[in-house]
TrEMBL record:
GO cellular component: cytosol
Residues at which ATP binds: G17, A18, G19, K20, T21, A22, R123
Coiled-coil residue windows: none
E.C. number: 2.7.1.71
Swiss-Prot/TrEMBL catalytic activity: shikimate + ATP = 3-phosphoshikimate + ADP + H(+)
Family from the record: Belongs to the shikimate kinase family.
Stored CDD domains: SK
Protein name: Shikimate kinase
InterPro entries associated with the record: P-loop_NTPase, Shikimate/glucono_kinase, Shikimate_kinase/TSH1, Shikimate_kinase_CS
Gene behind the chain: aroK
Described purpose of this protein according to its UniProt entry: Catalyzes the specific phosphorylation of the 3-hydroxyl group of shikimic acid using ATP as a cosubstrate.
Organism in which the protein naturally occurs: Roseovarius tolerans
SUPFAM superfamilies xrefs: P-loop containing nucleoside triphosphate hydrolases
Amino acid sequence: GTHWILKKTVVLVGMMGAGKTAVGKALAARLSVPFLDSDAEIEKAANMTISEIFQRDGEAFFRARESEVIERLLDTQRGILSTGGGAFLSERNRQMMSDKGVSVWLNADLSLLWSRVKGKNTRPLLRTAHPYETLRKIYETRAPVYALADLNVAADPGYSIDDMAAEVEAAL
Ligand code: S3P
């Protein structure tokens, strides 16, 4: 297969439903490098789901664990790192990600995001009376921040997960 040596971890950022996990796995497979996932690491360490952590300990607690996990992964491993949708909002996290890695915004449009997240109850932030409106507001607030990523890759709705992975690979 391929023999990629990553100089820096590739950090995928962007909204819930953008495909960070799926594209991250596909990209890691294409490059034969490890796949890392901050949400999965947090769940493993706490032995709880993200929803349970939000419910029991609150969002601020979750964000603190998230920053620790991302820092640890960036310091100890190189690979493709998928992060939770809120991770890039902290300036300190952004700094870490761009110093120790290369950040890539998977920019999917709102209708694609909604089609991927609707009906699932794994996203505590969308547990509101009007989840579509909530998603739209989150997208609008966050888009200018995600745009600060080192690379921006548009997730065209016609693309497959592997097309997206190829797109990111080409941008590296
Ligand atoms: C969040 C996104 C989730 C998870 C948590 C908060 C967010 O990850 O970290 O529910 O703030 O956008 P995904 O982006 O993988 O859904």
